[in-house]
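Input set for joint prediction.
Command: fold jointly, output tokens.
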Amino acid sequence: MISLQKNELRKKVLELLVIRASGFSFDSQRQYPLWELPNEQLKYLLKQGLGGVILHGGSVQEIKNRSITLRRWAKQSILLCADVEEGVGQRFEGGSWLPPPMALGLRYAKNPQEALYLAEQYGRCIGSQARRCGLNWVLAPVCDVNSNPLNPVINMRAWGKDPHTVSALVCSFHRGLISQGVLSCAKHFPGHGDTRVDSHLELPILDNDFSRLKEIELIPFKDLIDNGVHSVMTAHILLKKIDSAFIATFSKKLLSHLLREKLGFQGLIVTDALIMKAITKKYGPGEAAVMAFEAGADLILMPENPFEAIEAIVEALIKGRIPVKRLEQSLERRYRAISKLNSFDCDSFDDEISFNNKEFEQSDDQCLVKKIIDISVEIRNNLSSNDSNGLVNLIRVDDILPCKFLSKSSPAFLIPKKFGYKNVLFHSLGVDPWKKDSNDQLALDRFGKGPFLLQLFVRGNPFQGNQNETARWKAVVHQLQSKDLLSALIVYGSFYFWHDLSKVLNPSIPTAYSPGQMPAAQQKTLDAFFQNDKEQTLIKENVIKFTD
Amino acid sequence: MISLQKNELRKKVLELLVIRASGFSFDSQRQYPLWELPNEQLKYLLKQGLGGVILHGGSVQEIKNRSITLRRWAKQSILLCADVEEGVGQRFEGGSWLPPPMALGLRYAKNPQEALYLAEQYGRCIGSQARRCGLNWVLAPVCDVNSNPLNPVINMRAWGKDPHTVSALVCSFHRGLISQGVLSCAKHFPGHGDTRVDSHLELPILDNDFSRLKEIELIPFKDLIDNGVHSVMTAHILLKKIDSAFIATFSKKLLSHLLREKLGFQGLIVTDALIMKAITKKYGPGEAAVMAFEAGADLILMPENPFEAIEAIVEALIKGRIPVKRLEQSLERRYRAISKLNSFDCDSFDDEISFNNKEFEQSDDQCLVKKIIDISVEIRNNLSSNDSNGLVNLIRVDDILPCKFLSKSSPAFLIPKKFGYKNVLFHSLGVDPWKKDSNDQLALDRFGKGPFLLQLFVRGNPFQGNQNETARWKAVVHQLQSKDLLSALIVYGSFYFWHDLSKVLNPSIPTAYSPGQMPAAQQKTLDAFFQNDKEQTLIKENVIKFTD
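tokens >
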């Protein structure tokens, strides 16, 4: 009897889990096998009623095939989501990859109308592409107000630095997004913008009290709730003046009282990924899931161990720690969200992407990417040609295995090379480029005599912990300038980083800044610097018609 | 009238072209847009009768979708090929990636029976996977006898160093391959094994005369022709004692007289890729195609510019430089090859790969990979544990953007890290690790105090021109040994390179050699070195059944 009841409860709890799976078709292709269930288990759980899957890795073609497969395995409706805040192409090859939201946040100060228009297009582009590859829930927009310039994890992902800019832009974005028939998600409640610690690595603790939240952090959430956002994602941060015992994800005060009751949010509350170290350093996989659910979360995203999460929640329900009514409420909210989705036919997708002549990224999408790059790239001074035979193009990235925005044929390599520069790539695993006696100067003898073109790809990237980059590269700028060896500086990524560096730059040095790091942004910046003509492709202009 | 005739001829010539296309679905995903036609042009040419496509890039899932699309565009039967000499996974994610053929060539000396058995399985694995993702023509086996240890481009791709080993193994391989219903290709005629120059970069010139060819190079080709190989690929090499005017690809003496008449080959002669620099440095795109066809080639692979190739061949036919009969013979040979292919139904593939629970790489395939790794990895001495806090794991690769066999979660990084090593990755674009006053010693101050675990990934890779690696790394071995800083050496790839290094190694130094560079080979080697237990995956053993 109890076992039967347990089994029933398990199936219901399973509906509230959102489990990570690889976007690739086959087990051997999983990039993170520790975090991604093998197909046999995934299929089993979907058959039993698993509520959602979050996909990582693969191309849009594969995501589409994958989403069809998962739906077939599931039989009932499931939530299929992905973290595509900056375009489907941010995660999945073949989709559009847009410059980060902060690019429009910065634009808003100069031309609010244009920024709002582009934010709506931004949302529309993501919604349309997500739907076309089979996703039905987009984990965006980020509603955090990036009030802290040292924020390592939100940073350029935010739509601005003040609450009204963020609020205006996310509402436009949201209108575009949901017009395409996908569910939305406001994150990370109650606001992750004022943190200096990466919650992927450890727990951020904040001093902000309720009146401060009301003044800044809550404004975009409130406005998006009024605009019908479908879900809200919690933050793994501790607001010690509001709830000193529980991080937001586990806080009844924040989720049940503030978000549900005071802000009147009726949609789905979803946790941020429970595998993040802010959680796993302190709580076991079962306990973390129970605490989130107990605090008011409806959906449990990426539990560290889905099986333990289910058992622990079931146990908490059976023992009365959590009333069964809470389970029913969460299930009911999930049904309502599912019922909002436009129904669509898998087979028609199949045709559209695989077998039709259409490109996935449509010309509107391409124009949008180009437009946002055009308005967001800043260039100061032109680079004059230099026939030194020691020219060095030094590219700095966090990570190269892989590096999404760099390949051998990236403009960041090809264009400087065409103009006589030797390419050198510096990354976290590489041979050390620093002077032995100082951590903050380049050992110039390891490169070539110069001068140097510096291309620094720096963003507040999750998991990287690279806050010291600013001081280090300021020192490098000083070093190279003092020896007359800095021919130009380009920053791709963090506005804050660029802003700090540009303060110490000699105003005559050519410099450029691009919020986007993608090849199209590299091309735009370097074409302008070098007055480069894009090379003609070899065969493009050369079609013979077979009818003359 | 002439224009009509021209148009007819164009369509016929088009059937003899094999054009490169991206394995990815969308134009924006092309990795080499200079070499890969956009979809609109590809579709147009297929509709007009293009004879074949060679695919590069993408996963098996994408190749399958792509092959279905291309067949639909074509309407008539087309040849779909890929360079998957070492497994479908060598090119396409999700397929099996096998250690290079030379691994079995080396095994043959010790256990010919086993080597022959495994060679047949090797062919069967490739044939089956190629067919299942929609390819029908495998550009393998390499029939070159790697008689020259300094060969930069064949090297480990060969099945051996002597003609009889190669011949026995390629015949076994071929039997397995064609049993799966795909076409085969013996390459590179008349033998590319005795070259010291990479024909991707410049033209190799050889002194070998006909009697030498007969004694060594021709033996595997002859035997494979007797075994019914479907096509033979030409080599871009100059055999100056046989035909001092024309490279093999353009040599009537070699293609028409030797291969067709003397060796009696009735199948398809296909050029090696005409975009290789040995060709393009000297000949225009039209002239190269005409010369190959004139010499006796049936199919023109990867012409530098397909449109110019067509026009030039049509012109040569109209002007009588090449008799129209030659065109008809080549077309006839192509029809015969096509008719040999098992017919298969696209839709059934669709189901098999996309929507079924089956993994693409089957357990037989996995066992085969494991078996060949097991018999080919050589390990000498165990690594003793070392609690120095300066341990360095120095990994050397040619290229990292991308590096197929390395990711952040590769065993080559993870296992040494677990045992206290700091990972450093050295590659051609990185910061220089060499002493200023010598190109052949490591600047040790750039790393950590050591000792060093060296993991050198060195193969005779096309396009790399890395013949100097042996001298350089010998010097490093001397340097580290003399300072007692070499804790161990692992070579992944070239047997020749390993053999040379092991000669200068102190016999007490732990060392390992693996012909394969893939993660599974890294795991095998490092597990043995470190007596490492493979980590359990977090959730694998933990399935809850919903029926208790």
